[in-house]
Amino acid sequence: MDNGDILSLNEDQDLIFPIINGKVSMAINRMMYRNLRKEGLDITPEQWTVLAFLWRQDGVTQQTLCNSTFKDKPSMTRLIDNLAKQNLVYRNASTTDRRSNYVYLTELGRSIKDCANRAVYRTMDAALAGIDEDGLKHVRFLLSAVFGNIREALEESNRY
Q1: Which end of the chain, N or C, is more open, meaning fewer C-beta atoms within 10 Å of its C-beta?
Q2: Could you give all domains of the chain from N- to C-terminal order, each with its CATH number?
Q3: What is the pLDDT of residues 15-59, one digit of tens each?
Q4: Helix 45-56 to helix 73-85 angle, to the nearest 10 degrees?
């Protein structure tokens, strides 16, 4: 690797590392939080990810929610506890496995879907402003590849 390659790598890291490090995610979450408040919703972006999964597939185990959102069990328990306090979800113990709880939306949890999604769409419209369809395809491809690489590396490290 010559100096030109090192310089190029450093320039790429200056651009890419903030994205991978979460600065973009934090900014999007901050805007999403504000947009959820503007819709009159007292939920966090993190809670929205749980609700969004349940809006697609209601009545899943806490473990399924952990796996789908990449949250650990204590974090997911806290999220579900808070959503239950807000009367947005409830738990039912499994009839076949006492260790498993199924999580379901309440009527209120189902009723906020459109408001919450409006806030998310407004956030994503702002985040993606000025990016054409080809740019979006590239972004999807690259982020999917990065995510897949990390997931594979984590799964491989869990095997050892």
Answers
A1: C
A2: 45-111 (1.10.10.10)
A3: 666 666 678 888 999 999 999 999 999 999 999 999 999 999 999
A4: 90
